[in-house]
Design a protein that fits this description.
By secondary structure, the chain is α/β, with parallel strands linked by helices. The chain is built from six helices and five strands; from the N terminus they run αββααβαβαβα. It has a single domain (3-153), classed as Cytidine Deaminase, domain 2, CATH 3.40.140. A five-stranded mixed beta sheet has the order 2-1-3-4-5. It is found in: Cytoplasm; Nucleus. It catalyses: cytosine + H2O + H(+) = uracil + NH4(+).
Length: 158
């Protein structure tokens, strides 16, 4: 799976979530039930050998949870894997990761983080880089438009 394919999954998650009425992100892992809960940040986790191992979206509002962000949902939805499965992986996310999600990426040995945009929110990119993680900003106008629309329509949720 290449960057464009994996990033498209993260964007799809964000759109699904937004269309469901939240901040777009949808969660999935093989063999699990799909959850239709929303918050507009999508994420996909791809192993170092190019296999999708988790995808998710922000569900803070839907679950009343402060920790169900897009990236943490993707990790959660990857299921119970050995630590080695995460080492060298790439996290694709539609928005720059917050401090918590930055820490989760570091904890699990994610070596690359590909973000959609960081204009609407600048997260822990500098810390990721400082810790040796490659950070790629896609500068996606589509992601920025999604977030700007969400922030405008639902400022109380953001």
């Amino acid at each position: 799976m290449n960057d464009q394919e994996a990033f498209a999954i993260a964007v799809e998650e964000a759109k699904l979530s937004y269309n469901e009425g939240g901040v777009p992100v949808r969660n999935f892992h093989p063999g699990a039930k799909m959850h239709s809960l929303t918050l507009q940040i999508g994420a996909a986790l791809v192993s170092k050998d190019g296999k999708l191992i988790g995808r998710g979206h922000n569900m803070r509002v839907q679950l009343g949870s402060p920790i169900h962000h897009g990236e943490t949902s993707a990790l959660y939805n990857s299921g119970r894997l050995p630590a080695s499965a995460y080492v060298g992986s790439t996290m694709y996310t539609t928005l720059s990761p917050c401090d918590m999600c930055t820490g989760a990426c570091l904890l699990y040995g994610v070596s690359r983080v590909v973000i959609g945009e960081n204009n609407t929110y600048l997260g822990g990119e500098a810390y990721l880089k400082q810790r040796g993680v490659e950070v790629v900003n896609m500068k996606s106008q589509e992601c920025q438009d999604l977030m700007e629309k969400f922030i405008k329509e639902k400022p109380e949720t953001w």
